Amino acid sequence: HPWETVTTAAMQKYPNPMNPSVVGVDVLARHIDPSGKLHSHRLLSTEWGIPSIVKSLIGTCRTKTYVQEHSVVDPVKKTMELKSSNISFTNLVSVDERLVYKPHPHNPNKTILTQEAIISVKGVSLSSYLEGLMANTISSNANKGREALEWVINRLNAEIEEFAASARGTMRSSMAAAAFVEK
Amino acid sequence: MNSVGEACTELKREYDQCFNRWFAEKFLKGESDGDPCGQLFKRYQLCVQKAIKEKDIPIEGLEFMGPSKGKTENSS
């Protein structure tokens, strides 16, 4: 898909069926900098479906985890960069992700996404096993992210179709009404 | 999609609709002459800031800025 389509979809990524744990999205701040780039700071609220026994231990008001996201869209250079990091109440594991969307250099109908994740783990017992597990999750999430955007793009296209169809229907009925009056 | 503050969801939806339209139809096409959603954003922001304080969400180093062009000095 062309870069403009992907960027528009990325700004409206949630909700989508591939990320059911994201339950809230809020814009904290937004501005256009002197070079014309749009900066947005967003807060994502996620609910991981923690088992109720754990909930009763930690208290139900703390079952949400939050992700802070900073995105920069440059409409001239056609790049979109997303940096996100989780705000964790436990601070044991933190994940910082960086995504960059750019048009494909040879095909304007395609967009290239580069994605990297930095996993930081505190504490001696949290070993390479856990890091490996998280790395696997993150790479399968990368695919999920692509599927999620596909889903959003299809939804946006369907909405446009629906709007165009109802506009045509309205025009036809008002033309028919006008023709009727003329007679 | 809901807001972090349940009371803010409607304000969020109105702002999102305005922003998404402006983003796709103006901004990406290089016409970034001002943001027509300023008023909606301000109302939505007040609500969100309150909800974040109430829920004690630790957002560090973030200044709540309005949708203004260019950098402005703000204190949170």
Automatic annotation (TrEMBL), chain A:
Domain called PRELI/MSF1: residue spans: 1-161
Cited InterPro entries: PRELI/MSF1_dom, Slowmo/Ups
Pfam families per UniProt: PRELI
Transmembrane segments: none
Superkingdom of this protein's organism: Eukaryota
Any single Gene Ontology cellular-component annotation: mitochondrial intermembrane space
Name by which UniProt lists this protein: PLD3B protein
Gene: Prelid3b
UniProtKB/TrEMBL annotation, chain B:
GO cellular component term of the entry, any: mitochondrial intermembrane space
Pfam families, sorted: UPF0203
Reactions accelerated catalytically: a 1,2-diacyl-sn-glycero-3-phosphate(in) = a 1,2-diacyl-sn-glycero-3-phosphate(out)
Key words of the record: Disulfide bond
Signal peptide (from-to): none
Domain of life per record: Eukaryota
InterPro entries: MDM35_apoptosis (IPR007918)
UniProt keyword annotation of rRNA processing present: no
GO BP annotations, alphabetical order: phospholipid translocation
One MF term in the entry's GO annotations: phosphatidic acid transfer activity
PANTHER family assigned: TP53-REGULATED INHIBITOR OF APOPTOSIS 1 (PTHR46403)
Family: Belongs to the TRIAP1/MDM35 family.
Protein name listed in UniProt: TRIA1 inhibitor
Natural source organism: Caloenas nicobarica (Nicobar pigeon)
Gene: Triap1
